[in-house]
């Protein structure tokens, strides 16, 4: 009798196993969607860091190379977010840094007048493929239609460039407004990117510059 009771206590009956499987199934059905939503919200909240890296890199490359630099934003075909690329250029008499001169670096080649020649700096490109789609987080640029910021060798924004980007705003969709705050990155003439809250009124330290 003792041996039989001990064997019974050591295992599961078929009914107990089925109940355990059902309970695990219910828990997974609840947890997986919540986990997916949490991961998506986390990716959306980190989007501003992705763009902050690009703006900071563009300014840093201008200063470190004593060159002009630019960051250009383009729409990612998969997510609808903005890819970015940082290029540099070394202006010389007769070869200004304009978009048609071919003097800017690319991801495949150094800038035409790079002091290091063909071994010089090559453009850095970052795709926004890992960011959530625009159905979760919608980007918008101020002023409308702007796509780039140009920096001088001192790291200041070049004010002579028309329609330069001054602010990138990120708005969560209605389904994610509780978990993802509205945010923006503003770039002043000093070239420093800063995070701000476009929903705050002027005078609030968190508000974006006008």
From TrEMBL:
Name of protein: Type II secretion system protein H
Primary location group: membrane
Keyword Transmembrane carried by entry: yes
Compartments reported by the entry: Cell inner membrane
Organism: Duganella dendranthematis
Domain General secretion pathway GspH: 54-184
InterPro entries: N_methyl_site, Pilin-like, T2SS_GspH
Bilayer-spanning residue ranges: 12-32
UniProt keyword terms in alphabetical order: Cell inner membrane, Cell membrane, Membrane, Methylation, Transmembrane, Transmembrane helix
Domain of life: Bacteria
One Pfam match: GspH
């Amino acid at each position: 009798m003792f041996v039989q009771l001990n064997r019974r206590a050591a295992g599961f009956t078929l009914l107990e196993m089925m109940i355990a499987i059902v309970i695990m199934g219910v828990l997974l059905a609840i947890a997986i969607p919540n986990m997916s939503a949490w991961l998506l919200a986390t990716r959306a909240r980190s989007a501003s860091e992705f763009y902050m890296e690009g703006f900071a890199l563009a300014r840093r490359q201008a200063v470190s190379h004593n060159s002009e630099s630019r960051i250009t934003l383009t729409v990612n075909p998969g997510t609808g977010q903005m890819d970015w690329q940082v290029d540099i250029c070394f202006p010389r008499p007769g070869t200004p840094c304009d978009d048609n001169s071919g003097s800017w670096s690319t991801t495949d080649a150094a800038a035409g007048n790079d002091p290091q020649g063909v071994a010089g700096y090559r453009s850095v490109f970052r795709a926004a493929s890992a960011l959530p789609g625009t159905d979760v987080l919608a980007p918008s640029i101020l002023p409308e239609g702007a796509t780039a910021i140009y920096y001088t060798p001192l790291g200041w924004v070049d004010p002579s460039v028309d329609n330069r980007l001054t602010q990138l705003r990120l708005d969560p969709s209605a389904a994610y407004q509780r978990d993802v705050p509205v945010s923006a990155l503003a770039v002043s003439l000093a070239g420093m990117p800063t995070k701000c809250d476009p929903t705050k009124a002027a005078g609030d330290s968190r508000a974006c510059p006008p």
